[in-house]
Every structure is written in C-alpha cells, then in structure tokens.
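Predict structure. Chain length: 321.
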Amino acid sequence: MAGMTLEQLKIFLAVAQHLHFTRAAEELYITQPAVSAAIHNLEQEYGVKLFHRIGRHIEIAEAGKLLQVEAQKILDQVSLTERGLRELNNLQRGELKLGSSLTIGNYWLPSKISEFKSLYPGIQINCSLANTEEICLGTATGQFDLGLVEGDVKPALQNTLDYEIVGSDRLQIVVGQKHPWFEWGEIDLSQLTQTLWVMREPGSGTQQRFEEALQNWGINLNELNVILVFNSGEMTKAAIEDGVGAIGISELMVKKEIQLGTLRAIRVIDNREGKGAIAEIVRPFFKLKHRQRFQTALSKVFEKMLISSILDGSHQYVSVI
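Prediction complete.
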C-alpha cells in the first residue's frame, strides 16, 4: 500500500471546504484533473467514498467527514512541527500567534510585544483582537499559541486550557461632563441604579467583571437602566463623552480622557451596614494555552517573559472588593 500523502490531504481538505473540484484546484494553484486524481486515488486506496457525486454537485460522505477532522489535525501538527524545527536557530526567526481581548491588546500588551521584539527582532508576531469568549475558543482550537484575556474561561473549556494570572487592572465607573455625577465625584452604591448605563456586549471580559462586582454589591444587572450595548470599549467611551450615561471601564482606556477632563472617574462608597468603604473592581489578566497541543519555543519564551513580569512585582492582582 502506498499510503496517503500530505499533498493528498491538503487537496482533500480544499475539496471538502469548497465542495467543488475546480475551486479547490484554483485555491491550490493546480489543475482540476490533479485534484480529481488525488481524490480518486484516496478512494481507491482505502475502498471508501469520500464524496457523493450528485449531478454537477458533490456532497461529503461519512468517510469524508471522518477524514476531514483527522486530516486537519494531521496538517495542524505538521505545521507546528515545521515551526518548531525552524526555531532551532536560537530564535533568530519564526512566528508567534497571539490572541488578545480588546482592552489587553490595545493598552497592556503592546509594551510586552515591544520588549519581546527588542530581544528577538527577527520574530514575526501576529496578534488578533476579539472579546474574551472568542479568544478562549481560538486558543482551544489552535488558532493562537497563547491567549490573553481579562474574563473567565467558560467551564466547557477549562479542561482544555491552562490559565494563570500575568497582570491586572482596575475597572472604574466613568461619566462625561454633562452627567450630574461629574461634579460630585463620589456616589453611594445605592445610586448606581439611578442613572442610564452604556454597556459592553455579552462575552466581553469587562462586562463579566462588572456584572460580578454588581452581584458582590447586592445589585442585580436588571436594576440598571441600560440604554446602549457596544462591542467596543472605545464606542462606550465615545457614547458617554457627550451623553448622560455611565460606564464601567478599564482605567487603562480612560487615562488620557480623565487627564484632559473630558471624563471623570467616580468613586463609589459601599454604604451597606454603615461600612463607608470604597467599592473597587480589580480584575486579573489571564494567559491561556492549550493543555495538550505542542508549544513552540517562541511561545515558551514569551510566556516566561509574561510570568516574570508579575513575579518581579511589576503587576499585582487583588480580588474584587
């Protein structure tokens, strides 16, 4: 038996994706007869039908569905192995694929990437930004070598992903100049239900932490008058600069606006049972990696740099108060 080849698997996956021999050939820059021959040889070799030919169309067969899953795993592993071999050059070249939630990626991560690039200038770093939920899923499916999020990992992925704290930031209640709280600078917990709110979308790490804080303060999210929901912290910020709503947002995102005086962070006093303490929301930044997938040398070095930054005291994590 000749056995299947990597080239046959690549051709098969292209046909399975497009369900079209000609489009698969165009994607791979080979001829349509070469595509047909590769599929025919696989079917002949193993005595199975990978596709059903129905008129001018094709549908993937049961054997094809099995091969599609396993072929993708094989090619992913080959790609990682090739990357690992290329890195056996004292990290002079290679690629690191990062996935980051929006706040971390826009405000915290750039300095880490800059530090890493100064040490390894030949390394290409590709960083994708999305909300926490999407980054967790991308790390679990192998899209990213490492993920960085400020929200929780869903229970369904906790057996797939390792995660540990590498930093933290603080969420603040912020309003614009037209809001009455702007002049006050301080409110009681009970007053949080007495204003309009602009929120992040479900799946956002910021939204997760804000809702957790509300629960800890004895406030149900349904008690807040939410008028707008955005999938970007920048959009929530812009919405309140000229409006009368309030937001819960990372202090990293509003540092410049607070310095300029266009926004103001509002101190919240926990007046339950006469406590009079300041109610704060401090959230951790988590590093994610797959528990079983091959980890490249580049990924290990970048991970070590992130961990050392918290061990040397440059970051602290404090639980939500």
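Summary: The chain has eleven helices and 13 strands.
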